[in-house]
Amino acid sequence: MRIIAAFLRDLWALTRPYWFSEERWSARALLAVIVSFNLGLVYLEVLFNRWQNHFYNSLQNRDINAFYELLLYFSFLAAVFIAVSVYQSYLNQMLQIRWRRWLTEKYFVAWIANRTYYRMQLTDGGTDNPDQRIADDLAMFVDRTLNLSLGFLSAVVTLFSFLAILWALSGALEVTFAGAAVRVEGYMVWVALVYAIFGTWLAHVIGRPLARLNFNQQRLEANFRFSLVRFRENAESIAIYRGEADEIRSLRRRFLDVVGNWWAIMLRQKKLNWFRTGYSQVAIIFPYLVAAPRYFSGQIQLGGLMQTASAFGQVQGALSWFITAYAQLADWKATVDRLTGFLAATERARVASGDHPGIITDIKDGAVRVEQLRLDLPDGAPLLAPFNASISEGEKVLVTGPSGSGKSTLFRALAGIWPFGVGTVRRPASRVLFLPQKPYLTVGTLREQVSYPAAPGTFDDASCRAALMDCGLPHLADRLDEEQHWAQRLSGGEQQRIAFARALLHRPQWLFLDEATSSLDEASETRMHRLLQECMPHATVISIGHRPSLAAFHERRMRIEREPGGVGRVVLA
User: How many structural domains comprise the chain?
Assistant: First the structure.
């Protein structure tokens, strides 16, 4: 019961926001129509049940006029049933996509806002595959929640609708107990209840491990898919290393994890299906067996027998809803657990950033100032000792130091994305551009790549072509409308030239470069920095680099030295 209570709390926490959101009235109205259609379908089943009594009686009595009248009546009921069923399904799908759209937007914000995604990547290794949770789990959650809830509602309404019918049709049964005759009213209702309770308990005992197995299956499938995407995105590096054999081993290992868990699901579902199929088959013949004595004794006609069997099937089916839906319920619980875990992880990251803000980033116009800035690793180990620094407008500053000393981490701190450490970073609010060592390229047109992070169309085509040509990419100047996966189509040097083309278009007043020319030869590197001096002579440039040739383009030096114990120390020159 504690597990069920915890699950219901998690389910309510995931479900409630949408139904009390700005879309609540339209969502509730749509749900009310769907529920009405569901209830209408149950009422039609009641009418079909009554029709069976009259129809089979007409056959027994050889009443041809009643036979044809009842066929016409059935055609009418069937037409209404078809129309209601189609629109119930259509409106259900409409509500699903509206709910999923709203939830996806909420999860986007929870994951991306305040760079939660970045902090989670650094600190929360337990929350795997956020892309899969947003893309697949949300869709599955909405589908399962609506369909299972409506199915349960139908089962409850069907139960109470047919309970009275079955009670009236089944009559009384006299049994002898301890030498005394006992009269059991509505005995078929009690038989259906005992039959369903026993079946539900046994289904739970057999199928209980499915929730854990389905949770693992979703995780393992996402891991395997992510490995395939990583392989595709790093195809060139793998080919150069000739790492195909190792990649096959890695992919095979991940897929074998998928297969192994799938076998466990198969074996568990086989046991559940053995029971569920046998249970449903016995339920077909069971009401005839129980009601047959009354038919053969002449207490009821053939129509009464068929109606009783149908009503028993409806009551037993409603009571056995848990059995038939058990596999979906297990899958649903696994999805709820994954989404709840994901939201909890985003909340932990948000609370951590509020309770332990770490490095304070103060955005305002003026110089770049670093005040008592200390940088730490995610595990809390110190990386850079506290230091102060000031960079005025128009200065050109070069940051150097051995590999692993913390240069790129300092770059991230200046960008305001590194959360580990203490101190204050003050930097301008506008006309700032950061160029990392590996530029980010989207899947889209070349115009989008050159304009990023501005929207396509911000810069005219002539300016985009001129920037590409100035950066040594004349072969791309006439391909602005071409759509490609540019991160795979362009070399590392070409990608870094694209980044410099962005700088020429945006013309920032403050430009931060993290080894932004590491993939270029020295001649090309020199050309890029001269281009910056010519096109943006008054811009402040803060560069991180290794090559001695970079010193010619910078007036000041900031050097990171390793102290005993591995902690870096910033030396200003």
Answer: 2
